[in-house]
Amino acid sequence: MNTSAHHDTDCFMCGLEQNEDANVVFRDPLWSGEMVPGYDVPGWFVLRVRRHAERITGLDEDELASFGRRAHDLVAAVTEATGAPATYLMVFGENHPHFHALVTARGEDVPADRRSGDILRLRAEHADPEAAARLVPAVRRAYERLTSSDTHPLPA
């Protein structure tokens, strides 16, 4: 698939195709898991469809069929690498109307008033680009290990 032909030049998420490799956990023809500028809280990653598609209803059949596997694998890798007791997968799409999911590791240190949906308040309170970047290699290794013996391969 030639993903470059399917980008919206005004879309923040499409612009992540230019994200530095050091920020990327994985990329396949359909999906990318990566650390995103502005959401650089340690343990936060974005899973995004690589072509411009709005809402889950904008996904094509291959993207839809593979979303659950990619979400599962990225959440598992983030959880393993961070040791978080909870890892959230959230989909909104209002600020950036391009289908993506925010994966957020929630550590024991996160107070009760910043858990569940209130974890988004940590975006401003706990942003730490250097600490977030230091986690990328560990999440990448966990992701690669978890998917290397993938018993649920994606359709070709």
How would you characterize this protein structure?
The chain has 156 residues and is an alpha+beta fold. It has a 5-stranded antiparallel sheet. Strand 1 and strand 2 form a beta hairpin. The longest helix is centred in the middle third of the chain and has 22 residues. The protein starts with 11 loop residues before the first helix and ends in an 8-residue tail after the last helix.
List the helices and strands and how they pair.
Layout: H1 12-15, E1 24-27, E2 31-34, E3 44-49, H2 61-82, E4 86-90, E5 100-106, H3 122-125, H4 129-148
Antiparallel strand pairs: 1-2, 2-3, 3-5, 4-5
Helix pairs in contact: 2-4
Q: What characteristics describe this protein?
A:
156 residues, alpha+beta, five-stranded antiparallel β-sheet, disordered C terminus
Count of helical regions: 4
Unreliable spans are 1-5, 151-156
Structural class: alpha+beta
Largest sheet, order of strands side by side? 1-2-3-5-4
Helix content: 25-40%
User: Strand share of the residues?
Assistant: 15-25%
In whole angstroms, the N-to-C terminal distance is: 11 Å
Our Rg estimate from Cα atoms comes to 15 Å
Characterize this entry briefly.
With 156 residues, this protein is α+β, with helices and mostly antiparallel strands. It is 32% helix and 17% strand.
